[in-house]
């Protein structure tokens, strides 16, 4: 079975792709990577035995060896003084170039004095009240959610070797009234092969970034700045160049990332919770789940682990996948980070992005959790405090973007879950 998908909005021609189940899709992703390394068979000339003799395996340089990293300014908003009201900027166009990997936001402030201000625990990332990345049709790829949620996506998504923005050499946060930090809006899933990077070659149809600057009340817990800081946000395009069919030595090159059209999404849902037993459903189903962050907050909006059930129960279509204490969840996540990690208060992560290297990032589809539109996935357990639980879902959509024709999950009886 195959269907035609329209990639013209990313500068590509329409093409037919097979509709496959997630297990086959994972196999194809693996084979696509392997093919990029070892090359494919060159079609032989017509002519019997002579054609067979001339058929040979031609090395094909992988996409990440054929393309090169590219950076350029994308946009600047501000400078804007933080005030009593939020400031919503006009949607910013992402320059059309090559294959989009991410947008890096560089946030910097000047002129502020501390006064009596006490910063919120989400500071400095909460200087961004809302952020989202939309495709050319206005559909959200990342967000909309707040700057702290984007910070968690950076820390837990595994998009860089040193993936904590707080470790940047220029970082200024804590009680500094002039914050400096960066946040990556991720598009690419795996930097070692370019999986998930999207064609971005149509200047008439561009991706867009929407940003809203937070208010003083949204940034501070109490008090007031002596002088309010003035904030500027610069966006930088992170992309791959367009490789030629061959390099300057005549060697054939992969010209597109593996499984071009495959994309990831980050989204947010929030549910109220009470003291005692709670069930929080995951509403983003139908794709492959790469990870889910759990953020518990009190009624006052303060991150608090007692709002999250302990033990944490995670159920998938009637199967209990996780049943572990918050302490064990932290220990296991620390192992998967490949380095020391102190989880922020009120934050846990259910990782499915650590199965290729044993650490989060540069992962393969093998470990992702397959779901259908009818899948029932729930966080359950007993909470010691009331408040809200936010689920930040990172999901991967295979190349088939038509929901009705997406992959299906076969059951053990041979029937198919629609």
Provide the CATH architecture of the largest domain.
Distorted Sandwich
The tally of beta strands, per DSSP, is 27
Alpha carbon gyration radius: 23 Å
Domain module count: 2
Shape: globular
Question: Which CATH class of the largest domain applies here?
Answer: Mainly Beta
> What composes the largest sheet?
5 strands, antiparallel
Distance between the termini: 16 Å
Structural class: mainly beta
Q: What is the arithmetic mean of pLDDT?
A: 84
CATH superfamily of the largest domain: Viral coat protein p3
Number of helices: 6
- Detail the poorly predicted runs: 1-20, 32-49, 51-55, 401-418
Task: Bin the strand percentage.
Answer: 35-45%
Q: And the CATH topology of the largest domain?
A: Adenovirus Type 2 Hexon, domain 4
Helix content: 10-25%
Write up this protein.
The protein has 418 residues and is mainly beta. The protein folds into 2 domains: 176 residues, Adenovirus Type 2 Hexon, domain 4 (Distorted Sandwich), CATH 2.70.9.30; 138 residues, Jelly Rolls (Sandwich). The chain has 6 helices and 27 strands. The strands form 8 sheets. Strands 5, 8, 12, 13 and 16 form a 5-stranded antiparallel β-sheet that branches. Strands 6, 7, 10, 11 and 14 form a 5-stranded antiparallel β-sheet that branches. Strands 17, 19, 22, 23 and 25 form a 5-stranded antiparallel β-sheet that branches. It is globular, with a radius of gyration of 23 Å. The N terminus and C terminus are likely disordered.
């Amino acid at each position: 079975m195959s269907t035609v998908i329209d990639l013209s909005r990313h500068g590509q021609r329409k093409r037919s792709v097979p509709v496959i189940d997630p297990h086959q899709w994972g196999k194809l992703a693996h084979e696509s990577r392997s093919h990029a390394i070892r090359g494919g068979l060159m079609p032989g000339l017509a002519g019997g035995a002579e054609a067979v003799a001339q058929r040979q395996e031609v090395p094909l340089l992988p996409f990440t060896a054929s393309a090169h990293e590219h950076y350029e300014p994308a946009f600047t908003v501000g400078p804007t003084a933080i005030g009593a009201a939020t400031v919503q900027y006009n949607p910013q166009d992402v320059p059309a170039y090559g294959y989009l990997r991410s947008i890096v936001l560089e946030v910097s402030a000047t002129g502020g004095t501390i006064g009596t201000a006490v910063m919120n625990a989400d500071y400095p990332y909460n200087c961004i009240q809302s952020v989202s990345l939309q495709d050319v049709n206005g559909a959200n790829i990342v967000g909309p959610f707040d700057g702290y949620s984007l910070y968690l996506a950076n820390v837990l998504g595994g998009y860089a070797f040193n993936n904590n923005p707080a470790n940047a050499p220029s970082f200024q946060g804590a009680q500094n009234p002039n914050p400096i930090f960066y946040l990556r809006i991720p598009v690419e899933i795996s930097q070692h092969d370019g999986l998930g990077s999207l064609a971005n070659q149509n200047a008439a149809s561009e991706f867009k970034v929407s940003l809203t600057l937070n208010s003083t009340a949204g940034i501070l817990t109490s008090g007031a700045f002596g002088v309010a800081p003035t904030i500027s946000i610069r966006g930088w395009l992170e992309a791959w160049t367009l490789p030629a069919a061959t390099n300057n030595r005549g060697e054939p090159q992969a010209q597109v990332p593996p499984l071009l059209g495959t994309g990831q999404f980050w989204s947010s849902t929030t549910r109220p919770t009470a003291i005692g037993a709670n069930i929080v459903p995951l509403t983003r189903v139908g794709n492959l789940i790469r990870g889910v962050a759990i953020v518990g907050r009190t009624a006052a909006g303060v991150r608090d682990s007692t709002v999250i059930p302990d033990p944490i129960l995670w159920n998938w279509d009637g199967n209990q996948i996780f049943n572990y204490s918050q302490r064990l969840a932290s220990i296991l996540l620390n192992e998967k980070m490949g380095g020391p990690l102190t989880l922020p208060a009120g934050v846990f992560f259910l990782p499915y992005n650590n199965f290729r290297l044993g650490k989060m990032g540069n992962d393969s589809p093998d470990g992702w959790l397959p779901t259908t539109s009818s899948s029932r996935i729930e966080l359950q357990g007993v909470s010691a405090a009331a408040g809200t639980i936010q689920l930040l879902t990172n999901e991967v959509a295979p190349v088939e973007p038509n929901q009705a024709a997406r992959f299906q999950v076969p059951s053990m009886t041979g029937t198919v879950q629609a």
